[in-house]
Amino acid sequence: MAGYRSQSEAEFSFRQMKDPHVVSFSPMHHWTEHSIRVHMFTCVLALQVAHLMRLRAARAGLRMSVRELLRELAGISETVLLYPPPEDAPGHAA
Questions:
Q1: In 10 A of CB 63, how many CB atoms?
Q2: What is the model's pTM?
């Protein structure tokens, strides 16, 4: 049973690699072996990030496809990160 589920996940990953809106291996406009290797690495890395993104969303109760998640994330136009001051900064309350 585990092997069957693994096969299903692998087939799903290959379908995502062919989807130009998610992770796409083509078209490849590279000619040197180094550039092709970098392109392949980037695509596989993007596929892994997409899989982890879907997994984290599922754990949070969001049953969404990678395409749906990317559509939602595309709606974010700005993110502001606020960091607290270091504890040793002048005027920092303990």
A1: 8
A2: 0.53
